[in-house]
Design a protein that fits this description.
Helices cover about 10% and strands about 30% of the residues. It is mainly beta and about 210 residues long.
C-alpha cells in the first residue's frame, strides 16, 4: 500500500549513501524510524535484521508471511523475528511491494543460475560475510546469515508456484520506511547483481536515513 512519510530528510539524525556492491551495518534504536531510499530507481537492497541485544534473534520470512497472510511486504507489515517478536513495522512505502522469498545472490547461485564464469562475480552474501569479518566485536559469522528482505525487488510468483526475477517496480526517489520496535542491527548489501533485471543491469546507490 502506498503511504508517504511525513518525515523530512533534513531532520534525520543520520544520513548515509551506500554505493552499489557495498555493505551497510548500523544499529537502529527502539522508536527510531529507518528509511531506505532508491536513489536512481530499480535497485535492490538485500537486508538482514537482528535483535541488536541478542543477534541470535533475527528476521523470519516464514513467521512474517504466515502472520500477515501475504508474501509481499508493504505499509503495515510487521517484520517478525524467529521468536515471534516484532522487529520493525513498515510505516511508509512509496514503492508498494517488496520481496521476501527470492533470497540473496551468492557466488554459488550465480554459477547455478547463469554460468560457471559468473562464479567470481561479486554477490550479496560476500558483502554480508565481509561486514561480519570486519566487525569481529559482534561475534557473528556465516551461520548468522539467515532470511533476508529484498527491498524494491520484483519477484513474481508464477501459476506453477515458482519465482521469476523481473524488472523492478521502483523508480528514482522511491523509499520504504520502518519504525523499530526494539534495538535493531541492520545489515544491508546494496545488490551488485548484473545477471538479472533486479537492478536494470546497472547497480546504483541507495540512501539510508534515521530519525529519532
Amino acid at each position: 500500500m502506498i503511504v508517504e512519510s511525513q518525515l523530512h530528510p533534513e531532520q534525520a539524525v543520520c544520513r548515509d549513501v551506500l554505493p552499489a556492491g557495498d555493505y551497510y551495518l548500523k544499529e537502529v534504536k527502539k522508536g527510531q524510524t529507518f528509511r531506505i531510499l532508491d536513489s536512481e530507481g530499480n535497485q535492490a537492497a538485500d537486508t538482514l535484521f537482528y535483535n541488536a541485544r541478542n543477534t541470535a534473534e533475527h528476521y523470519s520470512a516464514v513467521d512474517t508471511i504466515r502472520e500477515q497472510g501475504n508474501v509481499y511486504l508493504s505499509t503495515g507489515t510487521k517484520l517478525l523475528s524467529d521468536q515471534g517478536n516484532v522487529l520493525l513495522e513498515i510505516v511508509a512505502d512509496t514503492c508498494g511491494r517488496h520481496d521476501t522469498l527470492g533470497g540473496a545472490c551468492a557466488t554459488e547461485s550465480n554459477t547455478v543460475r547463469y554460468a560457471i564464469e559468473r562464479k567470481c562475480m561479486h554477490a550479496c552474501r560476500d558483502s554480508w560475510l565481509l561486514a561480519l569479518s570486519e566487525h569481529p566485536e559482534l561475534g557473528m559469522d556465516k551461520h548468522d546469515i539467515t532470511h533476508n528482505i529484498n527491498f524494491f525487488m520484483n519477484v513474481p510468483i508464477t501459476e506453477e508456484g515458482g519465482l521469476t526475477f523481473e524488472d523492478g517496480i521502483s523508480a528514482p526517489g522511491k523509499y520504504v520506511e520502518m519504525k523499530a520496535h526494539m534495538d535493531i542491527l541492520v545489515l544491508i548489501s546494496n545488490c551488485p547483481q548484473l545477471n538479472n533485471p533486479c537492478n536494470a543491469y546497472n547497480p546504483t546507490p541507495v540512501e539510508l536515513l534515521i530519525w529519532d
